[in-house]
Amino acid sequence: MADTASGSVDRSVQVKLVLLGEAAVGKSSVVLRFVSNEFQANKEPTIGAAFLTQKCRLEDRVLRYEIWDTAGQERFHSLAPMYYRNAQAAVVVYDITKASSLEKAKSWVKELQRQANPNIVIALAGNKVDLVKSSSSAGTMSTSESEDEADDATATPGETPSVADGESESLRQVPREEAQAYATEAGLLFFETSAKTGEGVVEIFTEIAKKIPIEHILASTRGGAGRPGVTGGRDGARQDGVNLDENQVKGKDACNC
Amino acid sequence: MATISTQLRNFKEPTKEQLTHVFFSIPEVTPVPVTEKSGSEEDLEKMEINAVLSLGVQGVEDSYAGKLHLIPPYLAFSSLDRKSVRFTLPLSTVRRVERLNARAGVYALSLSTWHSMKIVVQLTSLRPTADLFCGLLREALKYELQRGQMKAVKGFVKSCYSEGLVPTSSTVADNEREDGSLINETKEGSPSPETSYQGGLGLRFKFPGDPKKLREASKIKLWTTYLRTHGRNLTLLRYPQCTRLVQVGLPNRLRGEMWETLSGSIYLRYAHQGIYEQTVAEIQGKTSTSFEDIEKDLHRSLPEYAGYQSDEGISALRRVLQAYSHRNPEVGYCQAMNILAAAILIYMSEEQAFWLLEVLCDRLLPGYYSPTMHGTLLDQRVFESLVARCLPMIHEHFQAVDVQLSVASLPWFLSLYINSMPMVFAFRIVDCFFCMGPKVLFQVGLAILKINGEQLLQIQDDGQFLNLMRDYFASLGQSAHPESSDPRARAISRFQELLLVSFREFAIITDETILSERRKYRNQIVNSIESFSKRSAIRNLKTLARFSKEQAGFIYDALYKAICEVPPPPDVAPAPSLLSTADGQQERPETRIGLATFHVFLSEVLTWARNEKIVINGFQQRIDREVAEHELIDRLFFFWDTSCKGSLSFQDIVFGLDGVMFNDLMDNIEWFFNLHDKNKDGFLTKDEVLTLSESFLFIFRYEIGDAYLGAVSRFMTNAFEYGDTLLPQMTDSETGESGPEPIEPNQPYLNLATFRMVVLADELLESFFEADLSASFRLELVPDLELPPSSSGFLGDLWSNIATVDNKKMFHKFSDELGKTIGKHQVVYRPTIGRYTKLEEPKARESLISPTKATSPSSSVTAISLSSKASSSTLTVDATAAQDAPLSASLSSAVFSPMPHMQAVNAAFMERTPFAIDDAGDDDDSDLESDHDGDDDQVLDEVDAFLEAHDSGLTDADIELAKDLIDAEPVK
Predict the structure, then answer these.
(1) Its domain of life (chain B) (predicted)?
(2) Whole-model pTM?
(3) Tens of pLDDT along B658-692?
(4) Among B166-180, B457-471, B842-856, whose mean pLDDT is lowest?
(5) pLDDT score recorded for residue B238
(6) How far apart are CA B475 and CA B470, in angstroms?
(7) Burial of B38 by CB count in 10 Å (0-12 exposed, 13-18 middle, 19+ buried)?
(8) Furthest CA-CA distance within chain A
(9) Alpha-helix residue ranges (DSSP H) falling in B700-793
């Protein structure tokens, strides 16, 4: 209530986020983990793009992520601009057990940096770390997904692993350092994640939330009807986004999922 | 660079004939039998004729005027409005054709089909035309008989569910007598009523929806009645009642068969029996990128349906998708096809689904699933324009809040709504889609927006739009008017409302609307796809080398143009999917061009890779440009193919050009040397020196004067002189003369230093390497083929009217001929270097030819001053012919007057016999209603909701006549 009085009518900031990456790197799984903390076979096949929302609390604000989970098949590439236009954030996913998927990720990053919203926050996520970690953390999830393991047959022993962790590490084709170096050079947030175990997934969205120029979004939203390049939470009457936020303790730095 | 597709560029609007084929769902290409004794199908003529169709049972249906098409091996009819009545009969199902004995001046035929249906067609054209038609029909039928197709019908129809619905005892096959009929068919024993029909997974895993709620029994009853009198599967006649029954939803068991009948895929299956099994056998053990993609999606295709939680369903889905991608590698596999395939497999067998998938991807949803998905993008654009036209308020609101329609509508179209709404409803839309064509997708889409209009005007962004649509689709089963006091109104579900709005309010959306809208936006879509792929091709280059983005863009354009002209060979199946290369890098498929395409490409960017003839014929001057062929150009190709793949990628070409375009004198000399040093040992052999000299001659082939010839000849002399002096000396013991050791022509002979020395000894060659070589690569638009029109006279005007490529060629040929006759024809080759514009003999640098002095600083200075002139090309031929043009104007006007003729044709085309008489109003099937219980009434209520006026296009007298004909006796 006090917040409302302090000026901003709506504390929920709407952030459009798009997921890009090669087919079967686990984009949908990452989203599913973030949105409903689940891991399972896809219920809805991704045609064009799936649309999901999730709130994420950052200090005294609630970010409402509008997540566009795009189809990974190469031929859907030309449709992607439809989904990443006006996006304030992007998560580009690759599969650490498949070197070519990083190449595709790089090409997505290039495209985003040239074609998308100039202020876009991009995070690079190397998914499927569970495949190269010893089984300690991987066993927690009961549901296993066939799609996730689908292309492991193609994996060959790659570069010498930096953080050797048993023989399963040999599945890794993209060394963490290499991807990290690329991410730093290109100015991206970088994470290694596992949609299966949940490792690193929430962090992506929290870190993005920190980096998003929220004030900028709020300013342009409050400005009125004109909405150049950003979709903000302009709808003061949004029901679902606000409730949780009110009367909440400030200073929490984690997503509420 | 991924792949460059020129498919879009090569698109041609369908011809009228193709459109007719599409309309009647006639398979494009019928397989030609390998051995043919007499008369192939190509010899069988097509013909169309005005006709009046009556069904041979009094009172069942009205008569309809329309056109009868003979398109061997099919006979097709469509009523004048193109929607009320139509049929497509394979000729092999026609069992008897008789000329009817009727009133004078009436020419009528009675056709009996396999399903003992009698159709009477009255040919209303003039008698000779009718005779001709009958003659052709007889030929076509005879041919079918010879092909043995007549016998194929019996086995085939057994695979259809409808045969079990309608008792088979009355088929012609059983009671046909051997009389004087056109077709003589020997009959074996009466067909046993076995039920070996093909069906889908639904038979085992249940069909979606509650059969009681779907009123399956009543629907089956209604269809049985219809199919009994109007033929079925191959011989189905589509009267208005058929469309209405489809609109209330097909019964589950019949659905698969009706889908293939209505979409016409049944004709494909009929004409290609056994092909599916064969394809499945072929792909055993094979693998491809499509197969991998398919594998990923198998468990994501309608996973909630029981059939796809079992191995049986998954394997069937895998086989059908793989077989299709194998049969049509150009399309391969696109996500969303899995959903379609999974959906149709519930209702049909694998074989049926395979052919239906082909009809879907090729004809009904053209280009939807292609690698560029251009069809999808195009139809989204068309849909957007239809929304702008039919629902302007929604369109404006969407524009205002920057909401993109496609975020919601793309999956609607791509998966035929199956992915968007509950399956039971989506399948009813699919029913209508197969029956009435792709326009249904647009009509339903518009209706969805219209029904939700008020809420749509409230939305502010894409997300809200999607949520609204999701909620709406989830509520389709609810009553549309829950508050209404009228129970009948309350009973109308939101889905029924949706269909009514679709087909009533958006009946204005016709096939023609869609076609013409597609034509309108096609170029726009193609351009945006092409510029998109150009941008990403350039972005995905590993390096631009020293080129700017614009220059790389130009290289891409030239490459693209070349690929359009000479398509590269089909992708050599990249098998690295399973064998990862050493560094784990998986190559993505990319377009690589072969030698032939390279020639065309190079002619775009390199002056000496093309021949340019300046043709002057008295009317015009123009430059005829052709691709030059020479060993040197092939050499360049292999020189640039550093990975030795026998093909070049965009990146290879960028590197290749980079290697020569930014060079200075020394770099260029070395480059040229390396180009000819085949084994890269740092030495040219004697043979290679000769080849190199030939390369010089080729490059200089059109230079004016003898200067270059002299230079090359001096080069050869010097090269061999210095080459010899540098060889180990030996003394001939007999003659006492000393000389170089004899050397084989393929042994190392001339090294780079010597070559450089010899080149620099010649001013002309030096200047060539200094600037001309690099400058002959030009990243700029090659100027248009024509010089600017020389006169505004008659020919000039005419010119602007005939500017298509073919016409230009004709015009050029024509004006050349004229030019020759009046002695003005003249052809000059344009020099590729163009340093000398007039004959002049430069002096050789005698002083420099000395082995001790390799370079001279002064010489390069002169060369620079010379080369500044070189960049301007040497078109000195004057436009002298301008004033001659009017002279020939009268001469050519007789030949070049296509316009009046075209107008006449157009006029003839526009003039059609008017059929304004509108006598057929709504027809109630009241006689039917009494036969059914209340349940059926409900169905019929729904049926009646779709009643539309059907114009039979006949006068009362015509109808009377048609009725008479039904009872008429055959002529003996």
Answers:
(1) Eukaryota
(2) 0.76
(3) 988 888 898 999 999 999 988 888 888 888 888 99
(4) B842-856
(5) 93
(6) 9
(7) exposed
(8) 60
(9) 707-726, 752-760, 763-767, 773-775
Give the model's pLDDT for residue A194: 93
Cα–Cα distance between A106 and A102 in angstroms, integer? 6
Q: What is the pLDDT of residue B433?
A: 96
For chain A, residues with pLDDT lower than 70 are: 1-11, 41-46, 134-169, 219-257
Which pLDDT score is estimated for B19? 85
Q: What are phi and psi of B234, to 5 degrees?
A: -60, -25
State whether residue B616 is helix, strand or coil: strand
Dihedral, CA atoms, A245, A246, A249, A255, nearest 10 degrees?
0
C-beta atoms surrounding A141 within 10 Å: 18
DSSP character for B883? G
Structure tokens at B577: 């999917």
Give burial (CB, 10 Å; 0-12/13-18/19+) of B735.
exposed
Half-sphere exposure of B109 (CA within 13 A, CB side): 25
A151-165, B162-176, B244-258, B550-564: least confident range: A151-165
Q: Which residues of A touch B460 (CB under 8 A)?
A: 234-235
Looking only at the bridges linking them, the beta strands covering B94-101 and B108-113 are: antiparallel
Both structure tokens of B570: 């089909």
Q: Does A69 touch chain B (CB under 8 A)?
A: no
What is the average pLDDT across B480-486?
Answer: 88
How does DSSP assign B512-527, residue by residue? Answer: HHHHHHHHHHHHHHHH
Q: List the one residue out of A214, A213, A192 whose CA is nearest residue A203.
A: A192
Give the tens place of pLDDT for each residue, B719-777.
Answer: 888 888 777 666 555 555 555 566 677 778 888 888 988 888 888 888 889 888 888 88
Cα-flanking dihedrals φ and ψ of residue A57, to 5°?
-95, 135
Distances (CA, A) of B385 to A215, B13, B96, B389, B447: 37, 20, 49, 6, 15
Per-residue pLDDT tens over the stretch B842-879 = 454 444 444 443 333 444 333 333 344 434 333 333 43
Tell me the residue type at B900: P
Question: Cα–Cα distance between B487 and B573 in angstroms, integer?
Answer: 63
Q: Which of B339, B536, B580 has its CB closest to that of A156? A: B580
Cross-strand partners of B123: B51
Mean pLDDT is lowest, of B9-23, B364-378, B838-852, for B838-852
Are A87 and A117 contacting, i.e. CB atoms less than 8 angstroms apart? yes
B436: region left, alpha or beta (phi > 0 left; psi from -120 to 50 alpha)? alpha
Residues in B 293-352 with any Cβ partner in A closer than 8 A: 293, 295-297, 299-301, 303-304, 334-336, 338-339
Residue B203: CB partners within 8 Å, gap ≥ 6? B253
3-state secondary structure B619-646: CCEEEEEEECCCHHHHHHHHHHCCCCCC
The residue among A90, A101, A11, A71 whose CA lies nearest residue B369 is A71
What CA–CA distances, in Å, run from B835 to B175, B709, B768, B830?
A: 91, 14, 9, 12
Provide the 8-state DSSP code for A139: T
Cα B732 to Cα B234, B724, B737, B741, B747, distances in angstroms: 94, 15, 5, 9, 21
> What local confidence, expressed as pLDDT, does residue B853 receive?
38
CB B14 within 8 A of CB B511: no
Residues 88-117 of B with CB under 8 A from A: none
Query: Which residues does chain B have within 8 Å of residue A73's beta carbon, measured at their own beta carbons?
Result: 293, 334-335
Task: Classify each residue of A166-179 as buried b or exposed e, where b means 16 or more C-beta atoms within 10 Å of its C-beta.
Answer: eeebbbbbbbbeeb
Strand partners, B969: B101
Within 429-458 of B, beta carbons closer than 8 Å to A belong to: none
